[in-house]
Amino acid sequence: MEMESIYAKQSSTKAEVSSGSLGVCGWFLVILSSLLTFTLFPLTIWFCIKIVQEYERAVIFRLGRITDRKAKGPGIFFVLPCTDSFVKVDLRTVSFDIPPQEILTKDSVTVCVDGVVYFRVSDPISSVANVSNSNYSTRLLAQTTLRNVLGTKNLAELLSDREGISHSMQASLAEATDPWGIMVERVEIKDVKLPQQLQRAMAAEAEASREARAKVIAAEGEMNASRALKEASLVISESPSGLQLRYLQTLTTIAAEKNSTIIFPLPMDVISHFMRK
C-alpha cells in the first residue's frame, strides 16, 4: 500500500512549469524568427521539422522558457530555428548496478553489499527542469540510500530479509526522486560479502548444529529400535514355535551368504525341558 500511494503521488503530482511572459523583446524576436522562417521556407524547413522516437519525448525551450506543460512526441514537431531549442528525454527503463558498498550493520559487522536499480522517467519536463542530470543523481542517491537503509539492519536481517530491504529502499528512492520526474520501478540486493573470519565462524556454527541434529536423530533411532526389539521379544516369548521359526529364518540367511561355518540351532523340544526348569 505504501508503494501504491507513492506511485499515485508520482502520477498525480507533476511539475507545474509555467511558460511565463516573453515580454515585448521576446515576442519581437519570435515574430522576427517566424518571418525569417517563412521567407526562407524551402531552406528553413529542414531546421524546423524534428522527429522523436516512440520511446522519446522532446521538451521545447523558447527563449529559455518551456513552451508547453506537456512534452512533444512521439513523431514530428516544429521548432523555430533561432528562438527554440529542445531536449530529448528517453522514457525507457534504465538499469544500473550499485557499486559494492562497505557498510557497518546495526550489530557492528562490516559487510560489502551491491545491488541493482531499475528506474524510468515519468515526467520529462521535471526531469529536465528540476535536476541537471537525473540519471547520475539517481545513481548517487541509490548508493546513499543503500548505506542508510542497511545501517539500520543487523546481520541476520540482512541475510534473511532481502525482499523487505529492497522494498524499503524502493520506497525511499521513489519519495526522493518524485520531484525529479523519476519513477523507481524495482530495487534488488545482488550480493552480500562477509569477512573471511565471519564466514569461517558461521560455517563452524552450522556444522556443529548439523552434528547435534544428527546425534539427536541417531538417539531417537536407537530408542525406536529398542522399543521394537522389546515388542518382538514379548511376542516371541508368548509363542515358542515363533522362536524356532526365527532360528530357521536366521539359518536360511546365513546359508545364502556362502559362509564356511554354519550354526544349527537346537530344536525347541530338546531345550524346552531346561526352559521349564
UniProtKB/TrEMBL annotation:
<feature type="transmembrane region" description="Helical">
    <location>
        <begin position="21"/>
        <end position="47"/>
    </location>
</feature>
<dbReference type="InterPro" id="IPR001972">
    <property type="entry name" value="Stomatin_HflK_fam"/>
</dbReference>
<dbReference type="InterPro" id="IPR036013">
    <property type="entry name" value="Band_7/SPFH_dom_sf"/>
</dbReference>
<keyword id="KW-0472">Membrane</keyword>
<dbReference type="GO" id="GO:0005886">
    <property type="term" value="C:plasma membrane"/>
</dbReference>
<dbReference type="InterPro" id="IPR043202">
    <property type="entry name" value="Band-7_stomatin-like"/>
</dbReference>
<keyword id="KW-1133">Transmembrane helix</keyword>
<dbReference type="InterPro" id="IPR001107">
    <property type="entry name" value="Band_7"/>
</dbReference>
<keyword id="KW-0812">Transmembrane</keyword>
<comment type="similarity">
    <text>Belongs to the band 7/mec-2 family.</text>
</comment>
<feature type="domain" description="Band 7">
    <location>
        <begin position="47"/>
        <end position="206"/>
    </location>
</feature>
<protein>
    <recommendedName>
        <fullName>Band 7 domain-containing protein</fullName>
    </recommendedName>
</protein>
<dbReference type="Pfam" id="PF01145">
    <property type="entry name" value="Band_7"/>
</dbReference>
